Each structure stands twice: as C-alpha cells, then as structure tokens.
C-alpha cells in the first residue's frame, strides 16, 4: 500500500496544491491532506476494505470508475479576498436582535416612574410594598420570558435553521409589543403577558444572533462583526433611556401617549429584524448539515461576494461541509446525545469556559450598577432626581462609547485574554474605590483628609471608569467567545447552555443586590470587586486565546484536543476506529480489515 501511495504521488504531481475530495479519507501524504473519493454521498462510505484496495489499484492505473482524485488549490489568505457587502448587511440584520435586548432594558426603568403609566394602571394608589411588587413583576416577567426563550430556540436553530429562529424571535417580540400598546383597559396582567412574550423573543434572539454572525464571518473580521452585537445593545439602551426621559419632559402626565410612545418604539427594531430576515441567506454551517454542497457554495458566494466558479470559495465550502458532516456522522455512529457529548473532554472544557465567562460577566457588578446607579448618584450628593437621571443617561453613553471602542480598536490590536485580564482588573479597582467612597460619603471629611466633594467626584469617576473597562472586556467578549468555540453540530445546544447561564445570573444578581445593599451597604461594591479578582484568576488559568482562530479543527487545537475525530480530512477513519463493538454495526474483523486498508500515514 505504501508503494501505491508513492506511485499515486508520482502520477499526480501537485507540489503546491492539496489533494482533496469526498468519501474515505487517507489522512496525509507528504504533509498534504489526501482523500480518495468514491461516487457515494460524502462521508457515508459503503465499500468494503477489499473494494478500497481495488479502488486504490484502479486509481493508480488510471481507472475513473471506481474512484476519482480532485486537485483543489489551497485557500488564499483571507486578507487578499474581497468580502461582499452582503456579509455586513446580514451581520447587521442579525445584530439587530441586540436592539430588542438593549431597548427593553433601557426604557423600562423610566417607564415605571412615568406618572401616566402609574395612573393608567392605578399603581399610584397602591401602598409602597404593593407598588414595588407590581413594578418587580413588570421587570421580572421580561427576564423570565428571556430565560425560557433560549432553550426554545435550540430545536428551531438545529432543525429549521438560524434564519427561522431569527424570524421566531422577531415575531414574538412584535406580538408582545402589540399586546403592551393596545392594552385599552387597566389590566396590568395583559401588559405583563406582552412583556413575557417580548422577553421570550429576546431570549431566542440572544441565542441565535451570535451563532449566525460567527458562522458567516471570516476569521479576520469575526471579532468586529461579533462586537457589533454589543454595540447595538448599548446604543439601543441609550435610546430607550433617553426616550423615556424625553417622554416625561415633553408629554403631559395626564396623556397615555407619555407611556405608549416609548413602548411602541419597540415595534421598529422588531419589524426591521422581521423584514431583514427575508433578505439574508442561511448560514453555510447549517446548510452543510443538509449534505448539499451546492447550497453551501451558493450561500458562501452570497456572503463573500464571489462568483460560483471561485476556487477559494469552493474549497472553503468543501471544508465546512466535511467539518460539519463528520460531527453529524460521529453522533450517528456512537449513538450519542447532547449530555454525553457535553461530558466528553473536548466539549466539557469549552462549556466550562463559556459558562464561566457569563458567570464572571454578571458577578462583576454591571447588573447591579444598571439597576442602582441612579441611587448611587443620589447618595453621592446629587439630591435632584433630574440630575441623578441625567448622570445615569451619561452612564449609558459611556457604555456605548466603550462598545464602539472595543469594536473598532481593541479587537484589532490585542487578543481577548489581554482585554479580559486588564479590563477586569480595572473593574475590580473601580469597585473598591466606589465602595470606599459611598461608605464614607455621609462623613463630613473622613477625619479631615478627604473632602466630601472629592469623594463624590471619585464616586462618579469610578462608575464611568468601570463602565469603560467592562465595555472592552467582560461585556462583549463572552458573547464573542461562546459563539465560536463549539463544534457546529452542537453549537446551538452549547450556546443555549451559556446563554441560559447569562439570563439566570442576571436574575440572581438582580435579586441579591438589594439584599446586599440593605444588609452590608457599600460593602456590596467591595463584594463585587472581589468577584472581579476571582474572575481575573479564572480568565488567566482557564480561558485560551481564540482571536483570529478559524472555526473547526483549528479551534479544537486551541483547547488542546487534536484527536482526529474532529479533523476535517481524517474524521471518518478515526470515528470508525474508535467506535466500540456495541456502538457500530461493523464486526470486529471487518473493522480491522478496514483499518489496515485505509488508515495510511506517510
């Protein structure tokens, strides 16, 4: 067999090109991927070992009937390839799910204190305890809906495609908004149902949007495209906050338009997303699961702006198909389910990283600041509610600037680990300073060493510095990393686990923060500072660098798993070899024959 390989090499000399095709894989020849191709469907070989021996022999003697050998040039560097405008349009449409998220978070705080809203639902006559409970239900119904929307998106993403999940997200969001706006009576429960459906759509959107963007992006521009999701979230949150602020200032308290207009604005991003999904195409990774290479090539042509005859595009489509189908076939051979896959070493390590990123993100204190920053400014000496709200609005602008800074600058100059470590360190220091300043704010001079005005200034600056540091580290990077580290065939399920973690810990932090403030006061911020220190340790020891790493086998190497089960070209051979007797229809003797016939390493 080694002589045959040498003869093949002499008969088909391609010193600078790759041998590649579909079917049974023969690993590497002279460090080049080499594949024998049967006329059978890709990655589903049915020929016996003897037939493969005969096929190699016939190939050497020039017979085209049994096998064929395709010579495909290597993929040119991505920086030399022109990326089509459609890629950025599709990424913008998918990132608009962030506007559903951001605006809902940004406007609800101002909505709950609008006099017209309180009067319409008769909340202004409730005792303080009942009012707080009613307002809490309005907020929590949205978060609960988002939490349950994430797992609902799993089967839609996996079975019907990423586009279908985007449509599902937009449709539910629009329906929930309509229920909130058309509420003619004073039944708060109908408004809460609308908020629940609204959040349900947001949950599904936060699952599918990062997946969609990561699957259509190239390694060189994946960082900036993924960062657009966070930019849209922060920008929409700013619009939501100032929209409610403007409605309060410009519209009479007796008019229902004061609260209905901020609510109705939610329709715009929902409708834009719904209409945009009819223009964009499905991702190549999902189309690869359909075992149709032509669909994958057509999708890549659209995203890359390349002609159907482009050789580089064909090679990229071929590699995507092999990567995805090898994972699908592995599940079929081993009869695996998601839990077993999740507990396997290659996936378990990635899940630990993904879940840990979102735990640190929420325990770093940003959720607490989002809800209580206005109270912090009041305690800092700004007794006017309007002044406190104005500073809160500036806080939103700072977060938006940080997101833009990360998108256009940070992702280009250093890797994810650098920003995670340095950003989280600055967040920890900011929280410690904030805790000290708020703890001593009531004292006139803290022994005469630090004037109160200086402490108030440091209090405000620490909040804004924290916002910038968080915005270039733990804010956007968890979304980016989790969307790119998992294999395509279980990407939706794994991202659902990490996204559910994000929503779960949002609920946890929102619930424990008022209890911490009531029990330990300013030490709450010291607690979150310590959480940032622990987060730095997690980032340093557990999170690898993924910036610029291509999806697939290269990402597997980053996590220390170079076993051939996840390799593009030799996954088929190793999957058959590694299968247990009770997990594959092949008999032991047949498995040995096939192993000796096709597992060639030169």
TrEMBL record:
It is found in: Membrane. It is a multi-pass membrane protein. The chain crosses the membrane at residues 87-114, 134-154, 166-191, 197-213, 225-247, 259-280, 351-377, 389-411, 418-441, 453-473, 494-517, 523-543. GO terms for cellular component: membrane. NCBIfam families: SP. Belongs to the major facilitator superfamily. Sugar transporter (TC 2.A.1.1) family. This is Major facilitator superfamily (MFS) profile domain-containing protein.
């Amino acid at each position: 067999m080694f002589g045959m390989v040498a003869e093949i090499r002499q008969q088909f000399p391609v010193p600078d090109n790759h041998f590649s095709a579909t079917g049974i894989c023969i690993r590497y020849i002279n460090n080049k991927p080499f594949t024998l191709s049967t006329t059978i469907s890709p990655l589903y070989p049915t020929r016996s070992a003897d037939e493969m021996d005969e096929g190699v022999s016939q190939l050497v003697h020039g017979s085209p009937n049994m096998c064929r050998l395709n010579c495909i040039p290597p993929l040119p560097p991505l920086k030399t390839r022109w990326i089509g405008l459609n890629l950025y349009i599709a990424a913008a449409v998918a990132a608009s799910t962030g506007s559903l998220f951001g605006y809902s978070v940004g406007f609800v705080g101002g909505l709950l204190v609008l006099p017209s809203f309180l009067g319409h639902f008769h909340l202004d006559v409730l005792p303080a305890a009942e009012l707080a409970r009613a307002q809490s239900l309005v907020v929590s119904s949205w978060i609960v809906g988002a939490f349950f929307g994430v797992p609902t998106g799993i089967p839609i993403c996996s079975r019907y495609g990423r586009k279908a999940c985007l449509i599902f997200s937009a449709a539910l969001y629009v329906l929930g908004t309509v229920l909130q706006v058309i509420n003619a009576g004073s039944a708060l429960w109908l408004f809460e149902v609308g908020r629940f459906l609204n959040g349900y759509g947001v949950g599904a959107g936060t699952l599918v949007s990062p997946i969609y963007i990561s699957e259509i992006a190239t390694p060189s521009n994946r960082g900036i495209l993924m960062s657009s999701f966070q930019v849209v979230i922060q920008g929409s949150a700013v619009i939501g906050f100032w929209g409610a602020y403007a409605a309060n200032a410009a519209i009479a308290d007796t008019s229902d338009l004061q609260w209905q207009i901020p609510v109705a604005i939610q329709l715009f991003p929902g409708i834009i997303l719904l209409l945009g999904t009819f223009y964009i195409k499905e991702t190549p990774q999902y189309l690869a699961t359909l075992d149709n290479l032509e669909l994958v090539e057509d999708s890549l042509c659209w995203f890359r702006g390349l002609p159907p005859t482009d050789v580089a595009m064909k090679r990229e489509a071929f590699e995507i198909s092999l990567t995805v189908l090898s994972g699908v076939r592995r599940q079929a051979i081993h009869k695996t389910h998601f839990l077993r896959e999740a507990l396997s070493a290659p996936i378990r390590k990635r899940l630990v990283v993904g879940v840990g990123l979102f735990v640190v993100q929420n325990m770093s204190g940003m959720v607490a600041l989002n809800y209580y920053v206005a109270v912090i400014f009041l305690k800092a000496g700004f007794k006017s509610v309007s002044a406190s709200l104005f500073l809160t609005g500036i806080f939103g602008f700072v977060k938006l600037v940080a997101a833009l800074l990360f998108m256009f600058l940070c992702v280009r100059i250093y890797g994810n680990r650098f920003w995670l470590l340095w950003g989280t360190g600055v967040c920890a220091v900011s929280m410690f300073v904030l805790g000290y300043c708020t703890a001593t704010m009531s004292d006139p001079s803290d022994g005469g060493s630090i004037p109160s005005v200086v402490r108030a200034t440091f209090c405000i600056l620490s909040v804004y510095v924290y916002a910038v540091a968080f915005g270039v580290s733990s804010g956007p990077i968890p979304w980016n990393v989790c969307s790119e580290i998992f294999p395509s065939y279980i990407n939706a399920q794994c991202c659902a686990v990490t996204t559910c973690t994000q929503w779960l810990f949002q609920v946890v932090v929102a619930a424990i923060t008022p209890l911490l403030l009531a029990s330990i006061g300013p030490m709450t911020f010291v607690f979150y500072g310590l959480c940032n220190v622990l987060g730095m340790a997690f980032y340093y020891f557990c999170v690898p660098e993924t910036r610029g790493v291509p999806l697939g086998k290269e990402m597997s190497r980053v996590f220390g798993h170079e076993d051939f089960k996840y390799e593009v070209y030799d996954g088929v051979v190793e999957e058959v070899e590694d299968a247990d007797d009770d997990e594959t229809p092949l008999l032991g003797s047949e498995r040995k024959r096939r192993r000796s016939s096709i597992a060639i390493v030169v």
